[in-house]
Amino acid sequence: MSTATLTQTLFSLPVAGRVALADRLFSSVPEDWQQTVDHAWLEEATKRSKEMDADPSLELAHEEFLAGLKINRARA
User: Fold this and answer.
1) What are the angstrom distances between the C-alpha of 26 and each of 7, 34, 63?
2) CB contact at 8 A, 68 and 60
3) What are 14-40's pLDDT values in tens digits?
4) Residue 41 pLDDT more than 90?
């Protein structure tokens, strides 16, 4: 079953069924997962901050950043 088909099937469940499934899925996530993800994001943010400090031309204005998001959404 494709992810799209599975997603469509799951979204057709009644709200109570979706909530129960979400709860079971969340309970299956290892406790240290969030710490691992947070650490990875912090490392990436630190790396990018150092890159921008070294070369300020890498920085994007807020509007440029949002425009990039819109372009990437259109491609998806």
Assistant:
1) 16, 11, 35
2) yes
3) 999 999 999 999 999 998 999 999 999
4) yes
Considering only CA atoms, which of 9, 10, 44, 42 is closest in space to residue 25?
A: 10
Residue matched to tokens 């469940």: 13
* Structure tokens, 51: 């890159």
Q: What is the DSSP code string of 4-72?
A: HHHHHHHHTS-HHHHHHHHHHHHHTS-TTHHHHHHHHHHHHHHHHHHHHHH-GGG---HHHHHHHHHHH
Question: Structure tokens of 61?
Answer: 């204005």
pLDDT at site 20? 97
Determine which helix (DSSP H) or strand (DSSP E) holds 1, and give its type and residue range.
Answer: none
Query: 18 near 11, Cβ under 8 Å?
Result: yes
Distance of alpha carbon 69 from alpha carbon 60, whole angstroms = 12
